[in-house]
Amino acid sequence: MVQRVDPHPKPRPRFIEPMECQRVAKLPEGERWVYEPKQDGYRVIGVIDGGTAVLHSMSGLNYTGKYPHIAEALNWLKLRGAVFDGEVVALDESGRANFQELQSARLSRLPIVYYVFDVLHLQGRDLLDRPLSERREHLEELATRFSDPLRLNPSFKVPLPAFIEQVRRLQLEGIVAKRLDSIYVPGQESDRWRKHRFNQEDEFVIGGYVRGGRNFSSLVVGEYRGKDLYYVKRVAAGFTPHLREETFEALRGLETRKCPFVNLPEPNRSGHGLDAEKMRECVWLKPERKCELEFVERTKGGRLRHAEFRRLVG
Question: Domain boundary residue among 152, 179, 197?
């Protein structure tokens, strides 16, 4: 018996690598753009295939075990197949995302929700090559079935200045601008999606660097609390090749054997800590130079999140 092969098989729901936003200093305006509040959490791809829902991180890791209640809520949509793109966040009492609580989601008492902002596959059909406006129509229809922890990330077609004022007033992280005609390009950064964070900035003391190439891979920075210098961040972002070389030259002659930070070494529970082993890669400096950094927020322990180097001070 000859088995028939479908010459045009329908695509299956599967992990699709997320499309990334271009970070910009100024958001675009005009009739072709819509605006969404930028959520502060973990980007997650939700895949529904038959009676099974699986959550994936940006790199494809299985996150289902981290947020089983979200996978269960996706199953309750009773869809044969779908792929969603969105952000998992922990919401505080004011309805704002709290990234620190999300990092300890198993212990947090805050609600953990899934803000969905795109649908990439639906019932045997890929929507990647369809414009955002069409994908959004499908998503808003599906969202009529959503209940917590599933939420539709709001999208607004409004004058940008008014929206910025509202987002700032609510103390949200930032704004994502999306072209209505944008297709979805997996795994690539697109200038048809642009994001802007309303960051903070401050001056910090450079107390060392981590060796890398001909100069350094990251700066080790801190701040004085009283007479003691506390480590707050390793900064690798924000450097052009010229700026990196210029900064390295400015730090020459400050090398010292003694670590200037009173709170190092630290435990390496997250894999990103500056423990005794990683400190062997550091070159310590006399704390005589400062730099200006841009960052999203401080953690409860005073650390910086999403910090970028701007310039040397003095």
Answer: 197
pLDDT(34) > 60: yes
What value does the mean pLDDT take over residues 193-216?
A: 92
Average pLDDT, the chain: 92
For the stretch 85-122, pLDDT in tens is: 999 999 998 888 888 788 777 778 899 999 999 999 99
Q: For residues 275 and 231, state if they share a domain.
A: yes
CATH number at residue 110: 3.30.470.30
**What does residue 161 show for φ and ψ, rounded to 5 degrees?**
-55, -40
**Same domain membership, residue 48 and residue 144:** yes
Q: Which domain holds residue 183?
A: 20-197
Q: Enter the pTM of the model.
A: 0.74
Q: Which of 131-140, 151-160, 176-185, 267-276 has the lowest mean pLDDT?
A: 267-276
> Catalytic residue among 38, 66, 178, 195, which?
38
Residues pairing with 152 in the sheet: 116
Residue 24 near residue 160, CB atoms below 8 Å: no
Instruction: Tell me whether residue 38 is one of the annotated catalytic residues.
Output: yes
